Amino acid sequence: MFNTTAMPFVHDTSFLRLFPVSQDQSATAFNIAILSTIVGGVYALYRRATKISVAHVAGPPSESFLLGNLPELFQSQVGDADFKYQKEYGDVVRIKGAFGENRLLISDPKALQYIFHTSGYNFLKWPERTEISRVLMGRGLLWADGDIHRRQRKVMLPGFGGPEAKAFVSIFRRVGAEMTNQWADRLVSSPDQTAVFNVATWLSRATMDSIGEAAFDYQFGALMNTKNEFMEAYMGLMSDTLGSPSRSAILMQTVLPVWALQLMSKYSNRRNLKHARHTAELANAVTRQLVDSKSDALLQGKGNKDILSLLVQANASENAATKLTDEELLAQMRTILLAGHETSATTLCWVVLELARHPDIQARLRKEIRETEAAIHARGGSDFTASDLDGMPYLNAVLKESMRFHPAVYHNFRQAVKDDVLPLSQPITTTNGEVITELPIPKGLKVILSIAGYNRNQEVFGEDADVYNPERWFRDSGEKKGPNVGVYGNLLTFAGGVRTCIGWRFALYEVQALAVEIINNFELSLTPEIQKLRREACLVMIPTLEGVSWTENTQASRPCLHTFLRQSQPRSQAECSKAVALRKTSIVTPYSQVRWNSSFSKPDSDYIESIFSTPSSWNQVVAEPTSKKASQSSSSRPIDLKAQEQRAFADLFDEIFKAAEVAAASEVALTSRRGGIFTSGETSTSGTASASGMAPAFELPPASEGYKVEPDFGVGLKRPAFSSEFYDSIRRTPGKPKLAHVEDEEFDKKKEEMNLCRTDYELLDWVLVDVFAEAQVYEEEARKMDLRTRNKRNITLRPSWYPNIIACLMQTFREKYQNPHTALAIFNYAKTTSIASYAFGCSTQAYNELIETYWTCFRDVNAVLDAVKEMQVNGVKSNTKTARLIDTIRRQAPTENLWSEEEMPMILARLDATRREAGGDLTSKNYKAPGMKFLDQWKVQELRDDPYDAKGFNKW
Ligand code: HEM
C-alpha cells in the first residue's frame, strides 16, 4: 500500500549514523546549542510562569522606596512596629526592604515552627547580620550556618547540658550575694538611708562575673570594680555598636555586600567600629590565654567543670575533621561572653522593672522565696539549690511572663535557601482577596522572625497577651496552645529548633538565682522617670530612659532605668526603710559613656561620630510628606531616588572608599614589610595588640618609614601614592549631585508633589498652578526685591527647581502618560511665556527631552536637527546625553525606512555634522570602570585568605 520510495525518511534511520562526532563536531555542537537554548528557554518561561512572589501578602505602605519599612522596624522601640503590623495585617506581614524588595515579618506559630524546627537549615541567617556577628564575636556559633554550624554546635553541646547548668547555681548565688552585700553596705552608710544605684550596670557586672567564673573559671572582678580594660570594652558593646541605628546604618546593614561591610568593619575610623575592633582584639588576647591555660591544665589531668574546660576536652576527643579550629575555639569564647552576659543582664533588668511596677506580684514572690528559704533551713540546707529554684512555681511564672513580655532578643533574621512553602496557623487573605492556608515563598526571600510578636500572639498566650500577668502561667492556656515552638514555656525568647539558645538553661538558673537574691533582700518601687522608659533596640532589647542626662552617672557604661530599691523587711520583721534609687540614664547620648582608656584610641580631630548614631544625610532621606496633599494621599512614593538619597549614597560610597584607602595603605605597609624593608631587630608597632601579646589583626610599619602611626589599628596611615590615584578615581565614579543641597531638596519636594498626581489632567492642572504660576510670582517678587536693593544683589528670576522640573515634566508626560504632545506643549509654554522662563526653563535637560520626544514618539529627524541648531544659536550647551541621543538617532535612522534613498545620505550627513558640533565624550563602549583591576586583585587575594568566602564575593 505504501510506496516506500516515496517515504524515504520513515524507514531510513541511517541518518543518525551519517554524522559521526568525529566527522562533524560543529554540527553536533550546533544541535546541542539549539537543544540547550530550547530547554533553557522553556525553563526560563517555566520559571517566569511559576515565579513565586509574596507581593500579594498584605502589609503596610512603604515609607520610602529606598528604605521601605525598615526605619520604622529598626528605629522604633522594640516591638512597636511588630505589634502594630500584627494588629492590622495579621501574623504574616509583607514589609518592604531597601529598594522596594519584599520581605516578610512573621509571628505565625506554625510558620515559625517550620522555619526554626522543620526546615532549620533551609533558612540561613542574613549574610549582613552574620557579618555583624563576626565583627563582634568572630566565626563562632552565632556566625556559623549549615554544616559549619552543625559541627560547631556538636562540639559545644557538652558544656551546656542540664547537669552542667545546675552545677553553676552556687556560682550564681555567690555572685548575687556579693552584689546585694554591696548594696546593703551602701544603704547602711547612707545618712538618709537611701542611695542611688545604677541597677542596670550592677546587673551587667554581676552577669559578667557569673559568666567569667562559670564559663572560664576566671575572675573578671567586675563587681569589685577591678580596673579592667577588658570589662570596660565589653560594657555597653551592643548598645554602642548597634543602638539607635541611623538610616545610613540601616541602609549599610541592608544593601552592602559582605565584602564592603567587612572592609568597613576592619578599617573604618568610626568610633563604634573602633570599639568593636578593640573589643575583639582584647577578647582574642584574653580567651587565647584562657584556652592555653585550660589545655595545659587538662594535659596535667587538672580538668575543671567550667564550660571552657568541657569544650577543650570535647574538642580534644573529636576527630580532626569535626574539631573546632583554634580560631573557632576563641570565637566560641567570645560568643559566650557576649551572648551570655548582655542578654541575661538585660532580662534581669526587665524582671526588676516589672516587679517594681507591680508591688503585689513582688510581695507574693517574696513570700514564696521566704517560704522556700525556711524549708531549706528546716532541712538543714544553707542556700537555694537548682531544684529549689525549679520548685518555686510563682518565681517561674514571673520569669516566664517577664521573658514573654520583654524578650531580650526580639528578632531573628533568616533567608530562604530554596523555594519553599510556609504552613500557616491562621489562614490569611491576600491583597487579591484569596484566602490561603499556606504561603509559597521564593528562594532568597528575607524574613524577619518576630520573637516579640510571637510572644504576644493571642492564639497562643490568650486574649490578654498584651498585659503583663504572671497568672496566665497557672491557667490552662499559655504554652499548651499552639504548636511546639520554644524550649521554655513555648516562648521564643530563646529561639528554637536547630538554633535554640545553647545557654538557655545556664541563663535560666542565673536569672532565677539573682532574682531570688534581689527580691529576698530589697523592695523595689518606681520613680516618676518610668514615664520615659524605652525598649531600646540594639539587637538586644535594653531598657533606657528618654531625655535624661548622663552627667550624673559616675560609673555607668550602659543605659539603665530609674527604680527605687528599698531594703525588704528582714526575716526578723524589723523595720527597714532604706531606699535605693537607680541612677539616671538617657537615650540622648546613652552610648557615649564607655570609658576610653589610653590604649583605646580617643576621639581626635578626624574622629568621625558613630555611623549608628550620627545624624547624616541618610537621616533625612525619608522625610515627612512635604505637603498636605502628600500626607493625605495614599499614593506610593516615587521610585526614583531623590537628591537627598543620591547624596546619602555618595556619603555611603565615601565611607567605603575611606575604609578601602586604609585597607590599601595597610596592604602596602605589609607588602613593604614582607619585602624585607625592616630588619629583624626592628620592633613591631602593632598597636596595643602586640603589647598584649596576641596576634595583631595587621601590623603597622614603624614611623620611620614615613607613615604617621596612630594607636588606631592601622587607621590614619598616610595614603601611598598609588592608592590616591586609584581611590580618587573610583571615588569620582558614583558622583555627587551637581546641584547645591537646598536646591535639590526644593526640587525633590516638587517632584514628590508631581508624582502624587494621578492622571495627566491632574498633572496639567498642577503644572499651571504650582509650576508656571508659582514661578511667575517668584519672578515678580524677585524683580521687586531687585528694585528695593537697587540692583545690588544678584537675583535669579526663576526658582532653583524650575529647569529641572520642566525637563522632568516633559519626561513624565511622555513616558508615564504616553502623552508626547503635552510634553512638547510644556516646552513651548516655558519657551514663550517669558524671557526669564525661556532662559531658566529651557535648559540642556529640557532640550534633551525635546529631542528625545521628537525622535522616540514622532521619528521627526528634522525637528531633532532644528532643536539642536536652536540650542547652539541660543547658547544652550549640549552635553553627553545630547551627543548620545544623536548617536542613537544616527544608528537607528537608516533602519527606519522613512526617507527615500536620495534623502537618506543628506539626513545622515546632517546628523553627522550635528553630532560633531554637539561634541561629548561617548566612548562608552571602551569605558572601563577605573579601579576595577585593583578591586579584582584585592578580591582574589581575599578569597585566597578566606576559605569560607565570608565576604560573599561569589554570592554577590
Ligand atoms: C536570658 C538570656 C538569654 C537569652 C534571652 C538568649 C537568647 C538567645 C537567642 C534568641 C538566640 C538565637 C539567636 C540567633 O539564632 O540569631 C541565642 C543563641 C545563642 N545563645 Fe543565648 N540567650 C540568653 C543567654 C545565653 C547565655 C547565658 C549563653 C551562654 C552561656 C548564651 C549563648 C548563646 C549561644 C552560643 C547562641 C548561639 C546558638 C546557635 O546559634 O546555635 N545565651 N540566644
UniProtKB/TrEMBL annotation:
Cofactors required: heme
GO molecular function, one term: heme binding
Protein's cellular compartments: Membrane
Primary location: membrane
Involved pathway(s): Secondary metabolite biosynthesis; terpenoid biosynthesis
Name of this protein: Mtf2-like C-terminal domain-containing protein
SUPFAM superfamilies: Cytochrome P450 (SSF48264)
Binding residue positions for heme: C501
A GO cellular-component term linked to this record: membrane
Superkingdom: Eukaryota
Source species: Leucocoprinus birnbaumii
